[in-house]
Amino acid sequence: MGRAVTVATCALNQWALDFEGNLERIVRSIGIARSRGARYRLGPELEICGYGCSDHYYESDTVLHSFQVLEKLLESPATQDIICDVGMPVLHRNVRYNCRVIFLNKKILLIRPKIALANAGNYRELRWFTPWSKARHVEEYFLPRIIQEVTGQETVPFGDAVLATKDTCLGAEMCEELWTPNSPHIEMGLDGVEIFTNSSGSHHVLRKAHTRVDLVNSATAKNGGIYIFANQKGCDGDRLYYDGCAMISMNGETVAQGSQFSLDDVEVLVATLDLEDVRSYRAEISSRSLAASKVNPYPRIKVNFALSCPDDVAVPTCVPIQWRYHSPEEEISLGPACWLWDYLRRSKQAGFLLPLSGGIDSSATACIVYSMCRQVCLAVKNGNADVLADARRIVHDETYIPEDPQEFCRRVFTTCYMASENSSQDTCNRAKLLAEQIGSYHINLNIDVAVKAVVGIFSMVTGRTPRFSVYGGSSRESLALQNVQARIRMVLAYLFAQLTLWARGMPGGLLVLGSANVDESLRGYLTKYDCSSADINPIGGISKTDLKHFIQYCIENFQLTALRSIMSAPPTAELEPLVDGQVAQTDEADMGMTYAELSIYGKLRKIGKAGPYSMFCKLINMWKEICTPREVASKVKHFFRMYSVNRHKMTTLTPSYHAENYSPDDNRFDLRPFLYNTTWSWQFRCIDEQVNAL
To answer: 0.90 cut: is pTM over it?
Structure first.
């Protein structure tokens, strides 16, 4: 009969504009799919050019090179006798579309443009592409000559259509279309489409995987069918980490699950499924049959090819499995670690340098680098030749095999404790002990000579010497003296990043890591151009609360006992003089708010779309057991004053791993003014009127 179909999906670590590498990974994935018996292969969104090309999509070169790669794919022996579904930009009648190009045996079957474009948060697809607005409509697309010469076709179908093979019917939707209220798979399913495909460029956010998996499974729970989901993975050139999770679902249940975080550039999932299970599932739902009898049909592209074999009665089929989710702590351990590895190997640097203060944030960053080293050693142990080749190139040793995470960490990771007269011995000891346990090459230095030299220049020019407030100075003097220390640390971090390996007789330079968390960035509790200014920041999108949980996870799973004292110590910048040898300055006292409060403010401001008045109205109910309305008003006003006064710092924020939906990243995600009227006079007056009324 032909009822068992074998299909493949994949997660590929594509890189924007890396046409050579992208082609190699696509061909490799198709070869793996064919070797496992698949008759259809789905790849990620825009996999030929890489999803994150941004304004390079405006360039005709991007479209040209995409077609050149398509030509190579059409000619490749690996693509024969398997339906290949690849993603690339296509210009049709001078309009640029985000498309799927579906081909078989050197013939293009259909070019399917994206109907619903992602245009919120980190996505800007409407900037570069136009959505296809002609539902169930197909036009002729005139192929470029280089493709005509391979396929022998002058024109191919372009538009909203489905493929009818000898044994089933396939319909494509792309990324955002799954997330829209009226997804294409609904109408396609009613029109008899049995296999739905989704090529995505979906990035990681903490706790997002549940939503994505639920959406895929629910797509076929009410309507029946097979759903194939492909996604990009890795860092393709910016702040986002695409987290794979390729999957295949049937009738509302997962039957194949890909990894969310791994160092494998190519991951292929293959499943064999029984079409009769779809048909019997649908036949039982009478309401679906009634709706299907009235549906407006899709244009069908007939394909003289089958996804099944005639004699397949004895072919084993896949059974439902339970999806295994990572905890948020595991996500922090794995996601930023994989992102750092991609950045390190693709930037062709020799490692990282981190100013390690002995506090939670820099310690969490160090643990993420250590987690990266663990992932590298595990990948090499499991036979990943790509990771081994990258590791050897990074350490400049063609015979090296990374087997021990601590030993590999010492080769690629330098930590530096930059003491001043305001630093305590406790933080120095904590930093040193953590460095010993993770294996980093650790440096201790003192910045007092440089601080006194800079302040001395100011005193020589002005005849005035600033003092800390504990010595009778003004708050402006004290803040300036704190900022000098912080900024000198940034200068020294870059100096040591460039020359430390040279001083050790080793080649290469180091990338500087920042360690400001998302809450401190939101509040602006950092010095502009201090150690928060770095090349990249793996924790810049993670809250202080989640970082504390991650530290506890590292204590339990990595046996990093040095973190216990770091966890118990109050967060402090150590920029003001010690009192009786003890730290007197704490972060929460300086900020005038707790980290827990900051996290709530951040979520209400960004995710809840709350201005000062709306935030006040929400918090008087949320905090009614612990605060009076007047106290809530005071807290909200203080937050918005500090947020607006410091918003200018976000314009220079170090590129950070995106992990939270309330990130204040000014580059693309959270677009706001950076010069505010910080009195918020109208908004605060509305709050005061409400307080008086209450």
So the answer is: yes
Supply the pLDDT for residue 664: 83
Q: Are strands 40-42 and 95-104 parallel, antiparallel or unpaired?
A: unpaired
Query: Cα(115)–Cα(303) distance, rounded to whole angstroms?
Result: 23
CB 276 within 8 Å of CB 225: no
Spot the catalytic one: 175, 245, 367, 377: 175
- Active-site option among 29, 259, 308, 357: 357
Q: Is 572's pLDDT higher than 80?
A: no
**pLDDT(37) > 90:** yes
State the average pLDDT for the chain: 94
Name the strand (E) or helix (H) holding 602. Answer: helix 595-602
Q: Please write the tens of the pLDDT for every residue from 150-182.
A: 999 999 999 999 999 999 999 999 999 999 999
pLDDT digits (tens, 9 = 90+) for 305-344: 999 987 777 788 999 999 999 999 999 999 999 999 999 9
Stretch 289-304: mean pLDDT, rounded?
A: 95
Active-site residue (options: 10, 29, 45, 656)? 45
How many other β-carbons are positioned within 10 Å of the β-carbon of residue 673? 9
Residue scoring higher pLDDT (591 or 355) = 355
In the predicted model, is pLDDT for residue 573 greater than 80? no
- Label residue 581 by pLDDT band (50, 70, 90): low
Q: What is the CA radius of gyration of the chain?
A: 28
How far is residue 285's CA from residue 300's CA, in Å, rounded to a whole number?
A: 24
Max Cα distance, the chain (Å): 95
Of 527, 526, 564, 594, the closest CA to residue 358 belongs to: 564
Catalytic residue check, 635: no
CB 366 within 8 A of CB 356: yes
Q: Is 54 a catalytic residue?
A: no
Taking the C-alpha atoms of residue 153 and residue 631, their distance in angstroms, rounded to an integer, is: 72
Catalytic residue among 99, 114, 183, 308: 114
Average pLDDT of span 97-124: 97
Q: Which residues contact 378 (CB under 8 A, 6 or more apart)?
A: none
| Cβ–Cβ under 8 Å, residues 199 and 40 | no
Cα dist. 142→46, 91, 161 in Å? 20, 10, 17
Tokens of 358: 């002995």
CA distance 246 to 52: 19
Question: 206-244 in b/e burial notation, b at 16+ Cβ within 10 A?
Answer: bebbeebbebbbebbbebbbbbbbbbbbbbbbbbbbbbb
Task: Evaluate whether the domain defined by 4-302 bears CATH number 3.20.20.70.
Answer: no
Q: What's the token pair of residue 408?
A: 């590999």
C-alpha to C-alpha distance for 334 and 258, rounded to whole angstroms = 15
The 3-class SS string of 319-356 reads CCCCCCCCCHHHHHHHHHHHHHHHHHHHHCCCCEEEEC
Can you tell me the mean pLDDT for 415-432? 94
Structural contact between residues 86 and 100, judged by C-beta atoms closer than 8 angstroms: yes
Report the alpha-carbon distance of residue 246 to residue 313 in Å, rounded. Answer: 28
Contacts of 432 (CB under 8 A, 6+ apart): 417, 442, 444
Among this protein's residues, is 627 annotated catalytic? no
State how far the Cα of 560 lies from the Cα of 204, in Å rounded to an integer: 26
pLDDT score at 261? 97
- Alpha-carbon distances of 70 from 33, 141, 432, rounded to whole Å: 18, 15, 53
CATH for 328-446+492-591 (3.40.50.620, 1.10.357.10, 2.60.120.10, 1.10.287.3510): 3.40.50.620
Does 565 qualify as catalytic in the annotation?
Answer: no
DSSP per-residue codes, 481-541: HHHHHHHHHHHHHHHHHHHHHHHTT-----EEBP---HHHHHHT-S-TTSTT-SSBBTTTT
